[in-house]
């Protein structure tokens, strides 16, 4: 979808799960732990990976099946979150090329930060496991404000903290709600097509400004 080189942005914001970090395996193994307590069969990686961006609720619905409402979902969600918190970075790692991309942003003096729907008590613990996040200017979680994506407020809050204009900021994410939030905030939006992009609509219909297949492509848009 790229048509021309863009002006160097004042800042770039990223979604977390499925964009910066590949968290699918730790989330999926947490789901399978919960299922084991119910004597239910595990879910395969191929099944849970596309759903990883949908959080505990989405994963539990996947694992419990069409009768998921017959379970005490809130109790299972608490079990899920407790187990995940204690096993949050066993298999999680940056997507290929992402750490290098963040290093390049530092080199070009482009401020960057994280805007995720992940709750803060998980986000804060996860980010401390990776030294690259010491350079993040702002980390906005799903409960930082009263609203979360697809509402644009978390993105605008991040821009205000970073003292940059939303129109001069890019947002990169792997879910339709990311692109919707970025578009509503007036940002240049990028689909991280390496992530967990399962949605009822193909990514070509998300109305993103750009679709990129590898993190390193991001730098080429202004360098």
Automatic annotation (TrEMBL):
Example GO molecular function: metal ion binding
Swiss-Prot/TrEMBL keywords: Carbohydrate metabolism, Hydrolase, Magnesium, Metal-binding
Taxonomy, superkingdom: Bacteria
SUPFAM superfamilies linked to this entry: HAD-like
Key word Hydrolase present: yes
One GO cellular component term noted in the UniProt record for this chain: cytosol
GO biological process: DNA repair
NCBIfam families, sorted: HAD-SF-IA-v1, HAD-SF-IA-v3
Protein name: Phosphoglycolate phosphatase
Native source species: Catenovulum agarivorans DS-2
